Amino acid sequence: MVQPPVDNAGGDRAVGAGDTTPAPHDGSATGNSPYYTELPTLNTPNKPGASANLPVIAGPAEAGIPASVYSAYKRAELSIRSTDPGCNLPWQLLAGIGKVESGQARGGAVDANGTASPPILGPALNGVGFAKITDTDGGAYDGDKVHDRAVGPMQFIPSTWATWGQDANSDGKKDPNNIYDAAQAAGLYLCANDRNLALKADLDQAILSYNHSREYLNTVLSWVSFYERGTHQVPDGSGVLPVHRSDNGNRNSGSRPTTQPPAVPTVPVPKPGTPTPKPSETHPGRSSRRPSRPSPRSPRR
After folding, report:
1. Could you tell me where the beta strands, DSSP code E, fall in 175-261?
2. Does domain 17-117+153-269 have CATH number 1.10.530.10?
3. What is the C-alpha to C-alpha distance for residues 21 and 236, in angstroms, rounded to an integer?
4. Per residue in 13-32, is it b (16+ CB within 10 Å) or e — as a string?
5. What is the mean pLDDT of the chain?
6. What is the pLDDT of residue 255?
7. Alpha-carbon distance 155 to 146, whole Å?
8. Is the pLDDT confidence value at 106 over 50?
9. Which residues pair with 233 in a beta bridge?
10. Is the pTM of this model over 0.85?
């Protein structure tokens, strides 16, 4: 098993949120692919402090996050807070997006390195019920040489991953199907454009840049609030799988995704910079778009 690094052994670069420029065309991280629309129950865990140190326990099913998935979210938060403290990225935001995009990587169906098995693919973005995005990666990430598809637990389209992809588990690959890589990339993407996610306006803008839909925004925010009230770890592979999707379950556009996404906002473009230090954290459980490369920036005051 490749243990996630505790420093910048993976050689990734940080995205300085203030060092970004708009992409040549409007777009979202997911290409506005379909997403899961289930909302959390009204009975929240309400366990103050539970998210600070999550034991693997039984509890409200919806509040359980697979161990490797939680580890990836938490590590991404710590890493990005160390290089861009002014963004104030909460891991619960990554969890909310991960929930609606892929049901937390299909309930934590990942291998020992954190890679979704089998891969998670959205429908072909062929313009039939979704945005039309012709192939940008020669099928390298999504196996489709005609149209792009959103890929992995955080559902990045290939053109976005080409810019924001990370190697957060230090295995020498930037893999959108790896939850560590995907969570780190998602965090950097959300912090782009000098956002401070502690501000409601910036938080909303960040989520809408991921999928340009008001319903998507409200759904993600519902899960963020739910997870902020308390949560717990569950073993990988035992998370609750959502059912209802924004496309009403229409899978005629391509292979069945666990996550899927439709249309597009402005995708930020990062500039090259220095390596991102990785946070030190023990790996719990068994046992991350189209712009240029990321670059760090001075902390905001």
Report:
1. 232-234
2. yes
3. 38
4. bbbbbbbbeebeeebbbbbb
5. 77
6. 33
7. 18
8. yes
9. 56, 65
10. no
